[in-house]
Amino acid sequence: MASQRLLPAGATARFALVYFGFFALSVLLLLGWVYFRTVPMLDRQVGETVAAELRGLADQARERGLSGLVEAIERRSGEGGDPNGVYLLVSPQGDKLAGNLGAWPEAATGDGDWVLLTLRRRTDEGAQPRQVGARSFGLQTGHRLLVGRDFGARAHYAGALVEALAWALGGALILGVGGGWLISRNVARRVGAVTATSRQIMRGDLSQRMPKDGSGDEFDRLSDSLNAMLQRIEELMTGLRTVSDSLAHDLRSPLTRLKGRIELALRGPEDSEAYRDALERALAEADHLLATFSGLLSIARAEAGAAKSQFERLDLAQLAEEVSELYEPAASDAGLLWRSDIQSPAPVEGHRQLLAQLISNLLDNALKYCGAEGSVDLAVRTGAAGVELVIADSGPGIPAAHRETVLKRFVRLDESRREPGSGLGLSLVAAVAKLHGAELRLEDNRPGLRVRLVFERSQTAADPKA
Predict the structure, then answer these.
(1) CB within 8 A of 398, min separation 6: which ones?
(2) Alpha carbon distances (Å) from 259 to 4, 155, 364
(3) DSSP alpha helices (H): ranges in 203-315?
(4) What φ, ψ does residue 203 adopt, rounded to 5°?
(5) Whether residue 446 sits in one domain with residue 332
(6) How far apart are CA 450 and CA 446, in angstroms?
(7) In CATH, what number is assigned to the domain containing residue 176?
(8) Can you state the angle between helices 218-250 and 272-304, rounded to 10 degrees?
(9) SS3 at position 86
(10) One domain for residues 36 and 176
């Protein structure tokens, strides 16, 4: 199984390898920089030491003469001297006068040039080849002086440094492999959990949500986004099932009545008045069915967000005034008190037709449930929170426990079933409000219902389109 592998296959393994490669390369570059900065520094120190000794011996020759120089060389190259030092003084004829070299090296031909010599030093283990860095100097008397340093200490130090760097590189690589393995395992675990949840969702369990570990990392943020999407999908699927069930339930009765009235008219005697009455009743049922389907289409259009492409800058106050002119006469005929407080301008970004239908639905409900000698209030105001649309009535209102329920499709409370309607009015209001990003609140008007919508104020233009 994939979970039992040492390194997970796929993208996580490639991620671990890439991580390990970059980690190893960075460590190698760092340790290489340390090595190539340290070893040349040792070489410079050796060269500076040889140059200093050469100057010191030259000073001895000038101050004490040849005998003083020979004495100084013998002292430095003898048993109590520097074991890594190389000294040789020869006569103008090339004969050795002092020092620990047997003869003048052929490579040391220049005066003051730095040369690298490979010499053999006798030790208890035999003659061992050693690399020596040296400089030569010619005296005024014709004598020649060679001073050098054995690179054995430098080589030993460089070897120890390389060994230390090798151990450090090995440890770093082990840590890199371990870190890459842990990271890949963590990624594989998180991805595996998402994959398992996705499979459950594909099998039809839309209640599942992507797991989170509470770290707030990129995986948790991705899970939040996916969970919000799944929540929306579940709501749409639930709404679709509800619409299907509600359509089957709510449309059966008007279709049955329509069919029954037509059948009765056909079975009865030929009477033009009876036919006319049957046709009028059938037309009323057909209008009810068409209104139901039109409401469902409007809700679907709003929920799909397709209408956003037709948004425009408009004055909500002017739109409310236009719709008000259609309903105010009906309110007066019904003996209702009509009050309006519409303050222009109220600029918003929105879909003119859907917003007009929203206001119409709310005014329809207000007139329908207001009751005799009641009142209807329509207000549009612009404040710090945005553009506010308020429609209130003095009817029976909606209990607080049912205010979320009535925003669903085909939901009608017992008190409202005596009035004609399909239960889609407030559903359309909720869908249009959500499309426009408006805050929708159903409140108690004491008595009656107050519907308050707060839209974001348009800042793009001072004078919205009429």
Answers:
(1) 406, 413, 442, 449
(2) 67, 108, 29
(3) 218-250, 252-267, 272-304
(4) -80, 0
(5) yes
(6) 9
(7) 3.30.450.20
(8) 180
(9) strand
(10) yes
- Whether 53 is in a domain gets the answer yes
Query: Rg of the chain over CA atoms, in angstroms?
Result: 49
Classify residue 465 by its DSSP letter: B
User: Is the same domain home to 34 and 165?
Assistant: yes
- Nearest CA to 358 among 314, 389, 398? 389
Same domain, 172 and 213: no
Written as tens digits, the pLDDT of the chain (466 aa) is 444 444 445 566 666 677 677 777 777 787 778 777 777 777 777 777 777 777 788 777 777 888 888 888 888 877 766 777 888 888 888 888 888 877 888 777 767 677 777 776 665 555 567 777 788 878 777 888 888 887 766 667 777 777 877 887 787 778 777 777 777 777 777 778 888 888 888 887 777 888 877 777 777 888 888 888 888 787 777 766 666 665 665 666 677 777 777 777 777 777 777 777 777 777 877 776 776 666 666 666 666 666 677 888 999 999 999 999 998 998 888 889 999 999 989 999 988 888 998 999 899 888 888 877 789 999 999 988 899 999 999 888 888 888 888 787 666 664 554 555 556 778 888 888 888 889 999 999 888 899 999 999 877 544 444 4
- The two tokens of residue 391 are 């429609």
**Lookup: tokens for 402:** 């049912």
Same domain, 330 and 436: yes
Give the count of domains, the chain.
4
The answer to the question of residue 210 being in a domain is yes
Residues 147 and 174 in one domain: yes
Handedness of CA 79, 85, 90, 95 (dihedral sign): positive
Question: Is the backbone peptide bond immediately before 345 cis, with ω within 30 degrees of 0?
Answer: yes
Per the CB < 8 A criterion, the answer to whether 84 and 149 are in contact is yes
pTM of the full predicted structure?
A: 0.48
Examine the domain organization and report whether 192 and 83 are in the same domain: yes
Q: How many residues does the chain have?
A: 466
Torsional class of 391: left (φ above 0), alpha (ψ -120 to 50), beta (otherwise):
beta
Residues 95 and 64 in one domain: yes
Question: What is the end-to-end Cα distance of the chain in Å, rounded?
Answer: 67
- Domain of 294? 252-304
